[in-house]
User: What shape does this take?
Amino acid sequence: MTQHLTKKLLLFAALFPLLSLSQGYQVNLQGQVSQAMGGAGLAMTEDGSSLFFNPGASAFIEKNEVSLNFTPTFANGTFLEAKTNNLAHTVSPMGTPFSAYGLFHLKDSSSLKLGMAVYTPFGSTVEWEDGWEGRFALKRLQLMSIFFQPTVSYKISDKIGLGVGLIYTYGKVNLQKDLPLQFEDDGSYGTAELAGTSHGFGYNAGIYFNATDKLKFALTYRSRIDMNVKKGQAIFTVPASLEDKFPSGEFSASLPLPSVVSLGTVVNPTDKLLLALDINYTNWSVYDTLGFDYAVNTESLEDTRSPRMYEAAFAFRLGAQYDVTDKFKARIGVSFAQTPSLDDYVTPESPDADRISYTIGLGYAITKKISLDASLLYTQLEREATNQETQLSGTFKTIVFAPGIQFNYTF
Assistant: This one.
């Protein structure tokens, strides 16, 4: 029993990438203009979110700007177990991703821009109802991460802008699951809870090319970031006879957030219509194995090296913006993203799949200095898989709604 349980504990190693990754894996909720246009934004100079999408484009934003962005996210998931046809549901609370941008130019230079970006690209809580088929794989995962990115952007000429931002990442995670070990007095199952914090460093660089008044291009590179959990806390609640086999204590892990190369373009067919296209390539192949080290080992609680075997993946994002009036803009978009995960490694905290997302939105200038942007995203995922480690087999379905709003102040 305990050797079999050790294999099940491998799943905890599989969950920890969500400290740096989320949702299958890239969350493109860093600005309402882009969100409303299918996530495309690399070659745009609409607002301070360029600090995230392309630091090279930030130098072409003429005014100083502060913007605040909030996107409450609602995800409803189900799991249909293959053998029993039992249907389980998630009871997850609302996700709360946000971002804040400050972009400023020096008085003595119109070409140099300094910026600060704070955003939460990975963070949510996934919780399954009590007694569901996969409770020995996962009951609850609470995840929070914050990225801090001071940025410098410089306009070399009227055609070219370069920018780079240094990234510091802080993450926090709490995971809970049942263990297949029952207490004799009430028949309840043992539990395991892992909690830890993580830190990492990287950079975000971009080039913006203003080819003509009607055509713009962008190239960006977001570096790999290794998230390191050094003194996480593992707490096991098991029958007294097994407490020596599952001692609570510290653990450590090192987790890669892969690099991303992106190309973007913007075309203005008319003075009022803007079309944007982004292509992202994420090098998920760096995440092939996950190491998970306990400070105290026993015959039932061993250090693990769990294969993940992710593959590199593309995402394509297309959007349009139309100036209805001088103050009002309408936006629409669509995106397609490949999943990096294979069928043998799909897990219940993030049952990722190839997905198509649909978006709409609008922007309104309240005054010359104050404006609001809003968007709505909808996507639906479905994945049939059998996890080779836990043998959890069935069909996952997830529906996501993400309305968002952004406040902008220029001066």
User: Anything to note?
Assistant: The domain at 2-404 is CATH 2.40.160.60 (Porin). Residues 2-15 form the longest helix (14 residues). The two ends are 66 Å apart (CA to CA). Confidence is low (pLDDT under 50) at residues 6-25.
